[in-house]
Amino acid sequence: MGIQLIKAGITDFMIFERAAEIGGTWRDNTYPGVACDVSSHMYSFSFEPNPNWSRMFSPQAEILEYLKNCVKKYELTPFIKYNANITGAEFDERNSSWNIHIQSGEIITARTLINGMGPLNRAVIPHIKGIESFAGKTFHSSDWNHSFEMEGKRVAVIGTGASAIQIVPSIAQKVKSLYLFQRTAPWVLPKLDRNMSKFEKKLFRFLPFTQKFYRYLIYWVLESTAMGLVINPKWTKILENISLRHLKKSVPDLELRKKLTPKYTLGCKRILLSNDYYLALGLPHSHVITEGIERVEGNSIVTKDGNHFEADAIVFGTGFNAAEYPKEFVVKGLNGKLLSDEWKQGPEAYLGTTVKNFPNLFFIVGPNTGLGHNSMIFMIESQVNYIVQCILNLRENAYKYMDVRDAVQENYNAELQKKLEHTVWNTGCVSWYQTSTGKNTSIYPGFTFQFWKRMKKLKKEDFEWVK
Ligand SMILES: Cc1cc2nc3c(=O)[nH]c(=O)nc-3n(C[C@H](O)[C@H](O)[C@H](O)COP(=O)(O)OP(=O)(O)OC[C@H]3O[C@@H](n4cnc5c(N)ncnc54)[C@H](O)[C@@H]3O)c2cc1C
Question: Which pLDDT does position 327 carry in this prediction?
Fold first, then answer.
């Protein structure tokens, strides 16, 4: 957003970051094995190709480095205020501006407010009876305890999502015992990961169009997987068969294979990629526990069937709260309307970007912009392009504010929820895409090029423009 504002000639803006450095997801998640699961050549900005990605799916440190290089190259540092946790904001209709509150007590006034708080950074840690008295260490995947030595330890991992399947193979060879507590067996596909060759890197550097072509190729391959997700869930059978073959090849033990066989339609929860997850679970000291956890007692995890599993550490691979609105973040729009009230039934926006009665407020990765098959950076760039158009319109026409029309937002969401009904995300599983009442507020139920097309040109008539 910062880069595109500068490119559009808008330089009176400020980025507030609660941490002491940039990086978001790629600053916070430092667990062993952390890497992207969308190929790096696609999981990067379209305007900033990196010919030096070391692998098809590069590790966290490289992605963080890439983001830091962007800040440097586009001279963003003077625009960023660190250690500035925004606690809320209210719209002042008289001055048509947002009063934005920083935890330090400072109040900043701005014509436009853009919420880029990120989808996956509010860790979910389940409350387990007795956990406070656990004798060992406990930590969440996004807050890794690097001082805890894994070697020779008994480690319990709770959860089988995208982080856990990267953690498990990375620690399995080091630990004395590995206990994986599994509620749901995920669908795991082979990861087409490999080192990028010296030749490829040279080719991309000297003939940039070849990297562009490579990116297109990856984009369309990923986009084609959405056919099963959004058009007909039955088509995901092809991927289910690939995954089952991967499982059969990696896990000869029939009992373990049965435990690891998913029981929902592929794609309903996030599709996972790994070449070594199943192999790690087949090690003699690895144990997959499918019985629910009842409590923690001393240094043991006790399951509902009364079994005790002694551990030196419990790792929560239990993901993030993506679907619900963070109630502690107080946002007041027109007539003092609270965003938390507007979103009582779950977050809703127009094109995941603007919300009625909250003028000049924009969301990046807002409601229903998440993906199950392609790069979030593609969605982010589409939204950023749209927001820049909105800001330029506000400025050039000296409007006080813009507010999305009620009917426009309502129709869009009715259409979106109707579309969701026929997708794989509505085939009966429970996922982090949903709120506690089961409403899917995270996923965009379409192809990403459809979203891009809708975002390409601002339709002024969708908004009320107040002079
Ligand atoms: C382990 C992991 C792997 C992932 N891999 C992929 C992948 O391969 N492909 C993909 O498409 N997506 C992936 N994602 C999703 C990923 O979150 C997005 O792709 C992308 O990083 C989102 O960027 P963002 O800037 O919107 O949010 P974030 O990266 O979360 O950044 C948000 C920033 O806002 C700051 N912030 C939040 N609240 C406040 C506040 N109140 N005041 C001030 N600052 C605040 C945060 O500190 C953070 O720095 C992954 C997520 C995780 C957790």
Answer: 84
- Pairing type for strands 308-310 and 137-140 reads unpaired
Tell me the pLDDT tens digit for each residue of 336-345: 999 999 999 9
Integer Cα distance of 366 and 371 in angstroms: 12
For the stretch 402-460, pLDDT in tens is 999 999 999 999 999 999 999 999 999 999 999 989 999 999 999 999 999 999 999 99
Report which secondary-structure segment, H or E, holds 201. helix 198-206
**Nearest by Cα to 340 from 433, 435, 420:** 435
Mean pLDDT of the chain, nearest integer: 97
Q: How do residues 29-58 score in pLDDT, each as one tens digit?
A: 999 999 999 999 999 999 999 999 999 999
Count of all residues that appear for the chain in the document: 467
Handedness of CA 427, 431, 434, 436 (dihedral sign): positive
CB of 38 within 6 A of ligand 1: the answer is yes
Predicted confidence at residue 330, as pLDDT, reads: 95
328 is written with which tokens?
């502690």
Q: In a mutational test of the pocket of ligand 1, which residue from 43, 225, 365, 376 has the highest number of ligand atoms less than 8 Å from its CB?
A: 376
CA 267/CA 231 separation, integer angstroms: 12
Q: How far is CA 55 from CA 17, 193, 195, 380, in A?
A: 29, 7, 4, 23
Q: What tokens does 456 get?
A: 């390409």
Token pair in block for residue 160: 């089988």
Contact 264, 184 (CB under 8 A): yes
Of 301, 256, 258, nearest to 281 by C-alpha is 256
Q: Is the CB of 353 under 6 A from ligand 1?
A: no
Best of 57, 120, 448 to mutate for ligand 1, by most ligand atoms within 8 A of CB? Answer: 120
DSSP 261-329: S--S-TTSS--EE-SSHHHHHTSTTEEEE-SPEEEEETTEEEETTS-EEE-SEEEE---B--SS--TTS
Over the stretch 182-204, which tens digit does the pLDDT of each residue have? 999 999 999 999 999 999 999 99
CB-facing half-sphere around the CA of 185: CA atoms within 13 A: 21
Q: What residues contact 289, with CB distance under 8 A and at least 6 apart? A: 179, 180, 181, 182, 303, 307, 309
